[in-house]
Amino acid sequence: MRLVWIALSVLVLDQVTKIVVRINMGTTGPRESIGVLGDWLQLTYTENPGMAFGIMPGSTSVVTACSVIATILIIVYLLRVRKGYAPYTMCLAAILGGAIGNIVDRLFYGLIFEYGPFFEGRVVDFIHFNIWSGLVPGDIPLIGGEYLALFPIFNVADIAICGGVAGVLIFQKQFHLRRLAEGEAAANAEVEAANAKSDRSAAGGPAFAAEEAPLPD
């Protein structure tokens, strides 16, 4: 139940912040900005049809379908390991909440805000750490001459996903060690139970035979 509350809390916080931003900052179009800590931290409203902070554009329907499939896989895996090492499973729950939060945008925001059909919504992003932005020098391979912003604009769901992934990487070794130890303990318990049963059978065999043996004439 704890994992459900973690995922649900991330989902609710993500959707509340997105709707507030969408209603209050979406009237003048994307990329409206409000300074929070000067130019370093801003609330910059934008909509992302792609994935991964908007740096992997693609077909909205394809991205949505991939997101749904990935979320289903996370749910299946979390159900299998839900009783495992708590920090590990809690990080998975945070990832799940964030993934569902972004999926809600992709599935329903086009209909809710009347700009597209079901399954073709865009994710609302608004948290903007404007550390540096500008054109990358042309002599740099692959990205030379491109406009680059550090960091990309993101949302609460993205924070939960990235933080959850970091936590999974940190806690996965302990998680697997504990699973291994629990498996060995269960195997040893089965062996001990089988040995105890065998000992009881061996001890009870002669006594039973003696009890049932016919009396001499």
Description:
This protein has four helices and five strands. With 217 residues, the chain is of the alpha+beta class. The chain has one domain. Helix 1 (2-25) runs parallel beside helix 3 (86-112), helix 2 packs antiparallel against helix 3 and helix 3 packs across helix 4. The chain is elongated, with a radius of gyration of 28 Å.
TL;DR of this structure?
With 217 residues, this protein is of the alpha+beta class.
Shape: elongated
Low-confidence stretches: none
Q: What's the pLDDT, averaged over the residues?
A: 84
- Residue share in helices? 55-70%
Gyration radius, in Å: 28 Å
Care to count the β-strands?
A: 5
Strand order of the largest sheet: 1-2-3
Name a few traits of the molecule:
217 residues; alpha+beta; 3-stranded antiparallel sheet; two-stranded antiparallel sheet; 4 helices; 5 strands
